[in-house]
Amino acid sequence: METTNESASPQPTSTPWVKLLLSWIIVLVPAAWGVSQTVNKSLPLFSSVNTASSAPATAPTMTPTVAAPTTAP
Question: Are 33 and 39 in contact (CB under 8 A)?
């Protein structure tokens, strides 16, 4: 008695390397462009050149003030 397995799934076929390579190129080219644009636009945030003045910015200092004592009338 010979049995056939008709419900078995077909054998997986190998993906041609050209199709796989093209798929990766389609994904990586826009991703690389986006990363390069992000890096180029963020470079000014990390540059040490200050265009307003050549002196480094300093935080304002608070000088303590003492209130004059008041005398009761």
Answer: no
d(C-alpha 45, C-alpha 39), whole Å: 10
Compute the distance between CA of residue 56 and CA of residue 54 in angstroms, rounded to an integer.
7
Global pTM reads 0.45
What is d(CA 40, CA 50) in angstroms, rounded to the nearest whole number? 18
Among candidates 12, 30, 28, which has minimal Cα distance to 20? 28
One digit per residue, the tens of pLDDT, for the chain of length 73 reads: 556 666 667 777 777 999 999 999 999 999 999 999 999 999 999 987 655 555 556 777 777 777 777 777 6
